[in-house]
Amino acid sequence: MKAAQVNIKNKKASFEYFLEERFTAGMLLSGTEIKSIRAGKASILEAYCIVHKGEVFIRNMHVTAYENGSFYNHTPRADRKLLLNRKEINRIEKFLSVKGNTLIPLKVFISEKGWAKLEFACATGKKLHDKRQTLKEKDDKREMDRAMKR
Q1: Does residue 128 carry a pLDDT above 60?
Q2: Residue 1's pLDDT band (boundaries 50, 70, 90)?
Q3: Residue 137 half-sphere exposure toward CB, CA atoms < 13 A
Q4: pLDDT tens digits for 76-103?
Q5: Which of its termini does the chain have fewer beta carbons within 10 Å around, N or C?
Q6: Distance (Å, rounded) from C-alpha 136 to C-alpha 17?
Q7: What is the rounded distance in angstroms from the CA atom of residue 43 to the CA atom of residue 61?
Q8: Following CA atoms 14, 18, 22, 23 in sequence, which dihedral angle do they give, to the nearest 10 degrees?
Q9: Quick one: average pLDDT of 55-64?
Q10: Contact present, 119 and 109 (Cβ < 8 Å)
Q11: CA torsion angle 132 133 135 141 (round to 10)
Q12: How far is CA 100 from CA 1, 27, 78, in A?
């Protein structure tokens, strides 16, 4: 089975947060949700992950209703369970026990086997001066690349 070229990204994640440890998890989806994701009609810009009763969920991920779904359609912003090992969940819970830490989704993609996967990271929020430093480093790199071309 050829995997579809679905790659839904959260481009602001690395600018807004310090990304520490990355995880890849499967998502528990209904039939119309996976069809909308394969069509590329999903957004993780405002989404975040939580741990509730020993399970990890993604909250506020928007998956547009499937146009041919009739009354079987899903709710667009429902919590979706992430499929992880117990060791990974324990590591995530330990990380989240520190104030200021969060789980940020980075991208949704379709695996080689056709499963919908979510890549997310343990993250700490950046302050304003950190964001300025990131922009400065980006500009410096761009200038160096221009100088190397000449």
Answers
A1: yes
A2: very low
A3: 7
A4: 888 999 999 999 999 999 999 999 999 9
A5: C
A6: 16
A7: 6
A8: -90
A9: 93
A10: yes
A11: 160
A12: 42, 25, 25
State percent of the chain over pLDDT 90: 65
Q: Report the C-alpha gap between 25 and 116 in whole angstroms.
A: 9
29: closest CA among 113, 118, 121? 118
Residue 114 tokens, joined: 């056709």
More confident residue, 72 or 86: 86
The tokens describing 70, both together, are: 């009739």
Q: What is the mean pLDDT of the chain?
A: 90
The letter for the amino acid at 23 is F
What is the 3-class SS of the chain, one letter each residue? CCCCCCEEECCCHHHHEEEEEEEEEEECCCHHHHHHHHCCCEECCCCEEEEECCEEEEECCEECCCCCCHHHCCCCCCCEEEECCHHHHHHHHHHHCCCCEEEEEEEEEECCCCCEEEEEEEEEECCHHHHHHHHHHHHHHHHHHHHHHC
At the topology level of CATH, where does 7-149 sit?
Small Protein B; Chain: A; (2.40.280)
Distance CA 7, CA 10 (A): 10
